[in-house]
Design brief:
single chain, about 70 residues, mainly alpha, 2 domains, flat
Length: about 70
């Protein structure tokens, strides 16, 4: 019973809360013609975040490689 409630809460969290921006964006696009750039703004934001995190990861990896602590067990 408790596990079932947990999974129902997780499902409710995603459908009722976390997907609200996507629902709003879908309704805005359906009612007006915003163009390609506006309709894909969420994808571009995700791409920018991914690129920033990848650059940080590469910088940290180079720092450890330069220090000689890479692959040290």
């Amino acid at each position: 019973m408790i596990a079932s409630n947990i999974f129902r809460w997780i499902g409710s969290l995603f459908t009722d809360v976390l997907f609200l921006p996507f629902k709003w964006l879908r309704l805005q696009i359906a009612t007006a013609d915003f163009g390609w750039w506006t309709s894909n703004i969420v994808n571009w934001l995700f791409l920018v975040v991914l690129l920033v995190l990848f650059a940080y990861w590469m910088k940290e990896s180079k720092k450890f490689l330069d220090e000689g602590t890479e692959d040290r067990a």
